Structures are given as C-alpha cells and as structure tokens.
Amino acid sequence: MFKPLCALALLTAFAGSALAPAMAQPAATPTGPTRVLEATFNVHARGMQAGEFVFRFTQTGAAYEASAERRITGGLRLLAGSSQDYQYSVRGAVAADGALRPDIYRHSGGRRGRVVEARFSPSDIITTSNPRMGMGDPPATRAQKRGAIDQISAIAAMVVADGDVCARTIPVYMDGRSRFDFVMHPDGRVNINGAAYQGEGVRCRVEFRPIAGFGDPQEPSELTFLFAPTSSGMYAPVRIEMPTDDAGIVILDARRLTVNGQRLR
Predict the structure, then answer these.
(1) Is the Cβ–Cβ distance between 36 and 60 less than 8 Å?
(2) DSSP string of 13-58?
(3) Which of 67, 69, 81, 207 could anchor a disulfide with 183, C-beta 3.0 to 4.6 Å?
(4) Backbone phi and psi for residue 75, each to the nearest 5 degrees, phi listed first
(5) 79: domain range?
(6) What is the C-alpha separation between 81 and 102, in angstroms, rounded?
C-alpha cells in the first residue's frame, strides 16, 4: 500500500501551472497543430479536501511540455503549512509512434526548497538535486531506468494515448528517484456525473508495481482511473482513486477540464 505522501506525489502528475524556469528547449522544432489540455482537481482524503492541483499539457507538432503544481489545503495546511507544496515541469519530444520522450524534468519545493532535475537519454537518467538527496534503498539501476519516463509525462502519455488508454504498461521514474510500473487494464465503460464532466467515460484498473528507489518498503497495489474521451482525440482524466496506508482511499476529482480552449461538460 502507498504511504500518504507517496500517494500525493503520484497524484501531482495531474497538477500544473506555469512551467518552471531554466528548462532546456526540445531538440526538434515544433511544427503542426497544437493540442492543449488544462485541468483543475480537488484531492480528498478521509472525506475532506486535502489538496488541489492544476494541470496543463501542450503538444505542438513533435514537441510537448507539461507542468504541475500541488498545494496542500484545509486542516492539513494548518499542520504542514507550505512544506508539501511543489511545482513540477517537463519538456520533451513526441516520437513517430506517438510515445513521449522526456528531455528534462524538474521539480522544486517542500520543506527544504529542494530543486531536483532529471535529464533523460536513451541509455540512462541522470538526477541532480540541491540540497542533495538520497536515491532510495536500493537505488534504481541503469537497466531499470532505461526507457522510463517521469510521472508527469506518464500521465500525459495516457492523455494522448493512441488506441485503448487502459491497455498499456508505463515505466515511471518518479521525482528522479523512485522506479515503478503502471500496468493498466480495461475495466469497462461507466457513466460519469462529476463537476467537470457528465457523460460516458472509460475506467482503467491500474496496478502499481514498485521496483526500486523508494527507501521505505512499498507493496504492489491497485488504483482506479476514469477518463473522458474527447473530440480532440485526447483522454481527459476525471477521477483517480488510490489506496494509502494511513489515509484510506485518496480521491482526486476534476472540478474543471478544458480541451483546446473549450470547457468540457
């Protein structure tokens, strides 16, 4: 089962605001149509709102960028203040087969204001941090990191999925340290009646398979994702349900979804 803060870290993949500064430019020159998805989410734990997120993903031709901002709210903020607030960003390229290939991932924030960068290459992922951080026990090997993507790109990969969004395995390297797989399985179509979307959606059963770098012991677990198909071809994330050790089922619900400038209903 997930530790609560681990769960919130994974949920930040759906959060976003302005891109952090000093990000490397994609190698390819963007051409072609632009696709944009923006979303605002509330996070609930033990029946109360515990946080909020705003997410933005943009694809222009062969380049993409995504960003995330997480903010603890309510009673948790009285206890933790801004110590669990983070900003995240990533830029990369879209391969010919539609796969997302991150170039550089960055996040900053937390109690110590740590800045973490992960640079991706075909053979490895190199992480730097200031102040320095440990790389988990055991740290991910080069072989385990090869082909993995950051957690924001992982969710973006679901948003732009070609074919069944619920039939894929996504290798994730979270926060430049923790390596796991999301193994996704179709779990039927459902009627969604939420604040951001009302209509038919698809449900995914998602296996979380920890591999390396967490430090604390993690066990395999299962999440539920709900997506709304859109006329743009993108899948809008509507709801996530994630079990945790101490906070029960953490739920992230979209309260606003915008696709290519048009609000989803």
Answers:
(1) no
(2) GG---SPPSSPPPPSSPP-S-EEEEEEEEEEEETTEEEEEEEEEEE
(3) 207
(4) -60, -30
(5) 4-263
(6) 32
As a whole number of angstroms, the distance between CA 14 and CA 151 comes to 9
pLDDT (tens, 9 = 90+) of the chain, 265 residues, equals 444 334 444 544 333 322 222 333 333 444 556 899 999 999 888 888 888 888 899 999 999 999 989 887 766 656 666 667 889 999 999 999 899 999 999 999 888 889 999 999 999 999 999 999 999 889 999 999 999 999 999 989 999 998 899 999 999 999 999 999 999 999 999 999 999 999 999 999 999 999 999 988 888 899 999 999 999 999 999 999 998 877 788 899 999 999 999 998 7
Number of separate domains in the chain: 1
Residues in CB range of 47: below 8 A, 6 or more apart: none
Q: Which residue has the tokens 């031709």?
A: 61
Whether the link from the prior residue into 131 is cis, omega within 30° of 0, is yes
- At 187, list the tokens: 């779990």
**CA quadruple 108, 111, 114, 119: dihedral positive or negative?**
negative
Task: State how far the Cα of 171 lies from the Cα of 120, in Å rounded to an integer.
Answer: 13
Structure tokens at 241: 């349900």
The closest alpha carbon to 201, from 230, 173, 174, belongs to: 230
